[in-house]
Write a structure and sequence with these properties.
Largest sheet: 6 strands, antiparallel
Number of helices: 20
Radius of gyration: 45 Å
Strand content: 15-25%
Shape: elongated
Low-confidence stretches: none
């Protein structure tokens, strides 16, 4: 529950620290005292849009901080764990700050976070029912969510969504395949030309380097032949060659070693040099015999190089890229032959997925229909206690053309607020006050199912008074048996039902007016209830009436 609310420099508020308790907490005060400002500050903490306009004049920033006691709430453990929040001594602290220049920041347990994450966690801890929130009740998606919460269809609804995702996945595959087939059909002539051009070239990875080497040899064949012949003759091909000259030196080396045997290793060096020169001469000679002047072959190589260049220019930049382009073109052409078979398989999968979705959606529809009947009975039983005697409520299923992610129907809440009238859509018949009471009727019924620990009601008493106000106070107190309830009211009948009564009032300090909030003690409660009754708050009659209301309300 929300155990403490701290507000700094927010609109007319200078500094407020409010400690709340379990059960029904009521905030009252004179018109214009700032009750709506407190609700606005709480909304900011729950992720509502931040504006620099909320910063109190003369201040640099406004801040709102809420301390939540989550001890014993195992149902919130998963919500907190998902967002990496670990309670400290069972407490979770949310904080939002808005600077006068418009920049805003947020924290969870002192760690920076985004306003979005703060809002997600805040909405798991507090359900704020202000004027805007009552308007959400007019949306069919909200009405469907309420019925599903009442019916307990969370697991089944998850199965419907999974079945719908599976169907959408198959349909996307089918659409993509059909589009690829259409594209291939439109491009078939070009693809065929492309594939045949590349395949006809019979490309080989790495052949460009070989062609370049061969082209260079053929282009310089005469020069290479002359160089090879000269080398062969100088190394081993004549009587004056290096090999012959080296051979004649062998006798001198042998005599040197005979006289000085220690120089024997020189003979090994001599042998290595002699045989190396001999091999060099043989290789150069053999190389020379392989050289030939072949203009025809050179022209053939140059044509091949030109072909490779053109293909690389069109599909490259490398031969590997050209080969890949050919493979892709052939694969697209092959698709024209295989698409029918693949589409038939996808259509079978689509039919199966649609059948699965239809089956689980039908089960969801059955549960919703059954729950709608029970919800109608329960709401109809509550409406008279909220000043709508003879009122009737319906949750009507509006079938969709085909099942979607949320089932096979939309849900529309309809009400008849007077006896003898036909139920009509909620959006057409409910005023603000009536809408608040319909919301309260639903919350009274759903309180046992709602996992959100704190419920905030603003304007739930709009347009009512007298006995109906007493009944609404009783309903709020009943909801407070399962939740912490924070209600903003101007009616003494509702305020008298509170477990904790807070007063919002204006005060002046150093010539500046600000809004303040304090918890009322027993005597102060009597005076505030007397004021709210509209008489003289100091008269014995008003005070006695106030005491009677408090005694009856259990406050």
């Amino acid at each position: 529950m929300l155990s403490e609310l701290r507000i700094r420099n927010f609109a007319l508020i200078d500094r407020i620290e409010v400690r709340l308790g379990a059960g029904l907490n009521v905030l009252s005060g004179e018109t214009g005292a700032g009750k709506s400002i407190v609700v606005g500050a709480l909304g900011l903490l729950l992720g509502e849009r931040a504006s620099a306009d909320v910063v109190r004049a003369g201040a640099e920033r406004a801040s709102v901080e809420g301390v939540f006691d989550v001890r014993g709430r195992s149902d919130l453990a998963a919500v907190l764990d998902e967002r990496g929040v670990e309670p400290e001594d069972g407490l979770v602290v949310l904080k939002r700050e808005v600077a006068v220049e418009g920049r805003n920041r947020a924290w969870i347990n002192g760690s920076p976070t985004s306003a979005t994450v703060l809002g997600e966690l805040g909405r798991a801890l507090v359900d704020l029912h202000g004027q805007h929130e009552h308007q959400t009740l007019l949306r069919r998606d909200e009405q469907r969510a309420i019925l599903d919460a009442y019916a307990g269809t969370a697991e089944l609804l998850c199965r419907v969504r999974e079945a719908h995702r599976a169907l959408e996945c198959v349909q996307r595959e089918k659409q993509e395949l059909e589009q690829r087939r259409r594209d291939a059909l439109q491009r078939s002539d070009f693809l065929r030309y492309q594939a045949e051009e590349i395949e006809g070239a019979a490309l080989r990875a790495g052949e460009e380097a070989g062609l370049e080497d061969e082209s260079r040899r053929l282009s310089h064949s005469e020069e290479l032949a002359a160089l090879a012949a000269g080398l062969h003759e100088g190394v081993s091909g004549s009587n004056s060659s290096l090999v012959d000259q080296l051979g004649r030196l062998r006798r001198s080396l042998d005599n040197l070693v005979r006289i000085d045997p220690g120089q024997g290793p020189l003979q090994e060096l001599y042998d290595t040099a002699y045989y190396t020169l001999q091999e060099l001469g043989e290789r150069v000679g053999s190389y020379g015999t392989t050289l030939e002047h072949d203009p025809g072959r050179l022209e053939e190589i140059r044509r091949r190089q030109d072909l490779l260049f053109r293909l690389r220019s069109k599909y490259g930049p490398t031969i590997e890229d050209v080969l890949a382009a050919g493979s892709a073109a052939r694969a697209e052409l092959d698709l024209l032959d295989t698409a029918e078979w693949e589409l038939a398989g996808l259509e079978r999968r689509e039919a199966g997925a649609r059948e699965d979705l239809t089956r689980v959606a039908a089960e969801l529809s059955r549960q919703r229909l059954e729950a709608a009947s029970h919800l109608r009975e329960e709401v109809d039983a509550v409406l008279p206690d909220l000043g709508m005697a003879g009122g009737r409520f319906e949750a009507v299923s509006l079938p969709l053309a085909s099942p979607g992610a949320e089932g096979a129907e939309e849900i529309e809440f309809r009400v008849a607020l007077n006896r003898g009238w036909d139920p009509r859509p909620l959006v057409q018949v409910a005023s603000g006050g009536e809408l608040s009471r319909v919301m309260l009727a639903l919350k009274t019924i759903l309180a046992r199912l709602d996992a959100v620990p704190t419920l905030v009601f603003d304007e739930v008493d709009a347009g009512i008074g007298g006995r109906v106000a007493l009944q609404i106070g009783d309903k709020l107190r009943a909801v407070a048996e399962a939740h912490q309830v924070f209600a903003i009211t101007h009616l003494p009948q509702i305020a008298s039902r509170a477990h904790l009564h807070l007063l919002v009032h204006k005060q002046e300090s150093d010539g500046a007016v600000s809004t303040a909030v304090r918890v009322l003690d027993a005597a102060e409660r009597v005076q505030e209830i007397a004021r709210m009754l509209g008489g003289d708050p100091e008269s014995s009659v008003s005070l006695e009436h106030a005491r009677e209301l408090l005694a009856r309300g259990g406050g």
